[in-house]
Amino acid sequence: MSSPIEVVNMSPEDYRKRKVALITGITGQDGSYLAELLIEKGYQVHGIIRRSSSFNTGRIEHLYKDAHENPKMRLHHGDLTDSTCLVHIISKVLPTEIYNLGAQSHVKVSFDMSEYTADVDAVGTLRLLDAIRTCGLSHLVRFYQASTSELYGKVAEIPQSETTPFYPRSPYGVAKMYAYWITINYREAYNMYACNGILFNHESPRRGRTFVTRKITCAVASIHLKKQECLYLGNLDAKRDWGHARDYVEGMWRMLQQESADDFVLATG
Ligand SMILES: C[C@H]1O[C@H](OP(=O)(O)OP(=O)(O)OC[C@H]2O[C@@H](n3cnc4c(=O)[nH]c(N)nc43)[C@H](O)[C@@H]2O)[C@@H](O)[C@@H](O)C1=O
Fold it and tell me: What separation in Å is there between the alpha carbon of 147 and the centre of ligand 1?
């Protein structure tokens, strides 16, 4: 096994051959599908999880048994609000690819917790990008930023395209707007391979129950089982493009396998 000094002195090609991924937000819908995909592709996968008094690893339990039983996956306690731990984890793991999927991702909640949303979603992205620099890995690591169709917010045209101007309409959208531009800024200022994936809504059986698709499907099941009588919803005029999360995580991986970094939109059309 190579020492950390030998690893950071490798050529970018040899460094990437190690196939080590670090995922923030690994316990979420996308993180769990991405971890599965990367393990299948022969990556060693590392995930950052937030400390919680209750178990929050339900979506990745089938992948993570014990570090001794599954050496392909390791979890680290950490948080996007804590730069020290990000530097510590990155310097230990020496990832070849970093996927920043960690976020306060609920649009409605971002109005109730706007400062927290900005701290995690906007400044958290900056902390992660800067941790890569602090570890001296800017020229070696490939970085994926989970951007969002919420950047289009009050849409300037229908349908949206790569050239549609952004107009975020929530603290979530505005925080993600900062993350989008800081990713581009690090790409241009430090020549980092850093991509934004602007993803439209994507769903799966692993989608959290507070998002509208799962709220409705779970309610239908509960009503059928006579455990619930009615369902209360909010704005019914919104329109959404829905893809499947499993397809979209493959898109994330492909964005990091290009010759040069760019920003991409994923939607079903
Ligand atoms: C791309 C984007 O995708 C997601 O954001 P979202 O589209 O807001 O997701 P949602 O499932 O909460 O809402 C869908 C629509 O449905 C409306 N809606 C009506 N009634 C209820 C309702 O009762 N609950 C909820 N949650 N929504 C409702 C709601 O107002 C909205 O117009 C996140 O992953 C986000 O992180 C992201 O980046």
Answer: 15
